[in-house]
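User: Sequence for Butyryl-CoA:acetoacetate CoA-transferase alpha subunit below. Tokens please.
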Amino acid sequence: MINKVITADEAVAGVKDGMTIMVGGFLGTGSPEILMDALVRKGVKHLTVIGNDGGLAEGQPANGPGKTPRGIGKLLEHHMVDHIIASHLGVNPRLNEQFADGTLTYTLVPQGTLAEKIRAANYGLGGVLTPTGLGTPMETEKDELGREKKTVVIDGKKFLFERPLHADYAFCRASLCDRFGNFMSAKATKNYNYVMAGAADHVVVATEKLVEIGSVDPDIFAVSGVMVNDVVEGEPKWQI
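Assistant: Structure tokens for Butyryl-CoA:acetoacetate CoA-transferase alpha subunit:
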């Protein structure tokens, strides 16, 4: 029987400087904190990070107990990110400080478009069509990876063609996961975790609760373990 459970440090061992990673969650809610901690310990640099936002910085009231950085905010705190692709960047002051001093760049992508671009990579689609961005610089500027933009007319309606967004690693958080990697995320912690699992060469899930294969009703799981390479147990309970 396949057992994909490893330690957090083992799970990030293959991450190298300059790689592109995806991180699930929304302002820390649903982010895999033990995997972010492991990346900080590893000390990789010059990452391109794909996520909804820049996480939370140290001391922000929304952080809850301890007010430590959360999610992608941990990577920003240690200046590990060169470029971030996200839809919401106004909360974490570290991100804006690093942008101002020229050590970080970012690409803003509308939230629905960002999710669909990731989903396209997950499901092997050639891209998605959306009216969002028409008549704005998004229609003519290159995308977040420097690719030319295109427009398509269907039944007399114009759409912007958005290409898939893929990463080297996707780091996701589960509330419940079995040893094969079948997992589910409770309530608001679903944010981006389901869509990112499968949109990268290597998918790691950090789970709050680990169960044996076959010990729970499989209908509980939202994502199949075939999408997951590694499972790490010990993710702290949802605190935000």
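The two ends are 35 Å apart (CA to CA).
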